[in-house]
Amino acid sequence: MEGRNVRPESRMSGQFKENSHSGASGPVDAAGAAADSAASTAGSDLEALRADLNRLKDTVSRFMTGAADEARKSAREVSSDVAGRVGDVAGDIAQRGTAIASTATDQVKTLASELENMARRNPIGAMAGAVMVGILIGMLGRRS
User: How far apart are CA 144 and CA 129, in angstroms?
Assistant: First the structure.
């Protein structure tokens, strides 16, 4: 049995030696060629990736420029609308203020003419009223 075991081992070692000597340059050349192919493929992939990134950068830049332009246009339109509305409201307030002032002026004139008419009809009552108003003003002046 030992004879049988020795023979296959000797055959295997012989085959191993033959394979290692006969195919040593083949796998190394194939590995080098594969490495060269992978390097050139990686280089071309890297260039394609750079080109894609540059296109993406340009696209994003155009998008941001367009968005900024749209934002400026919107801001101008909004500010124009707000300015117009504020102007309209201010004009409305001014008209209402003028109307209130003219109404108040008319009422003061009416009150003054009524007081004048009362004083002409009843001069003693007007003087008594003036004395009472003077006393009230004097009393309020003491409290302060």
Answer: 23
Instruction: Classify 93 as helix, strand or coil.
Output: helix
Residue that has been written with the tokens 């004083």 in this structure: 119
- Kindly calculate the radius of gyration of the chain based on its CA atoms and give it in whole angstroms: 54
Burial class (CB in 10 A: 0-12, 13-18, 19+), 119: middle
Q: Which two tokens stand for residue 37?
A: 């192919």
56 CB-side CA count, 13 A: 6
DSSP 24: S
pLDDT, tens digit, 9 for 90 and up, residues 98-139 = 999 999 999 999 999 998 898 899 999 888 988 999 999 999
CA distance 95 to 144: 39
Do the beta carbons of residue 101 and residue 108 sit within 8 Å? no
Whether 126 and 119 have beta carbons less than 8 Å apart is answered as yes
At residue 23, the pLDDT reads 47
Tokens of 35: 């490495």
Instruction: Indicate if the alpha-carbon torsion angle 59, 64, 69, 71 is positive or negative.
Output: positive
